[in-house]
């Protein structure tokens, strides 16, 4: 399959906007029918492109977009002369990477079946856009014994339309897992992990990356998927193009995740990690401040995190957020205490 970038731009009357190479179309979105707020972005070599509608949230390949637009005439089966120049390039296979750093497809668990209106997910404030993006599923396959026996919920992690990793979460609560850990240590039980995941390079994946669009200027960074889900619910981010919430799969942002973030139009980062990540919050905030306007939130209660906080608690946290330097200095005593405690523990005194 082959496309001619110049011909597509001319035929669809695409106009550049933003700083990242997006080309906007005045045509209604073929998926939702709404005018404006949809665009294409081509790869650097012009071999492929991605369509994104900022009204309905559809993200798909140039091929699917052209077919939906009834413009199959712009999809070539062989090389033809360009209308603007003779330099033609074949479209990369749909399975190939759209960008150099995009992860390859991951192997998903066998026998996945979708979850719809799941009571547990509803209790955690899963919204329509979360169901669409993470496609929560379950499996009863005998080939996935652990996932099936303990009724794990499996979530797909995507970059564009590509599934690059998966996460699985047990439905059992924390008390159940604490008891399970105790039994395991006593040698009378089998360890059941609260979380399982694919063996993919999570250090290169920024969770919720697809929620960042060309108009997004502020990103809230949290540790995990359910942290993001609750923040989205509390602030109603599903209808906000300027702010997005992403998660880093832990207490710090990796070079790969930072690289992803720097490729966007994001200017401000709000760091909102759990209370037990205070030291990591200070270090990460100072590092991020080299590239973004950064604010840091402090969650002072050990039993509260972004995944279970209320709207009132979130408002207090956002009101009290600080710049990285003041956050570091105002929590200096805590850092000294933590460091001392780690040294004592390492000597076996406690």
Number of strands: 16
Overall helicity: 25-40%
Low-confidence stretches: 78-102, 335-350
Alpha-beta classification? alpha+beta
The value of Rg in angstroms is: 23 Å
Q: Looking across the biggest beta sheet, what order are the strands in?
A: 2-3-4-5-6
Describe the structure.
A hairpin with a 4-residue loop joins strand 2 (15-17) and strand 3 (22-24). The strands form five sheets. Strands 2-3-4-5-6 form a five-stranded antiparallel sheet. A four-stranded parallel sheet has the order 14-13-15-16, with helices on both faces. Strands 10-11-12 form a three-stranded antiparallel sheet, with no helix packed on it. 30% of the residues lie in helices and 19% in strands. It is of the alpha+beta class. It has twelve helices and 16 strands. The chain has helices spanning 5-11, 62-68, 119-123, 128-134, 145-149, 174-185, 225-235, 255-262, 278-288, 311-319, 324-330, 332-346; strands spanning 2-3, 15-17, 22-24, 38-42, 49-53, 59-61, 89-90, 112-114, 137-139, 153-159, 162-169, 195-197, 218-222, 243-247, 268-271, 293-296. The termini are far apart. Helix 9 (278-288) packs antiparallel against helix 11.
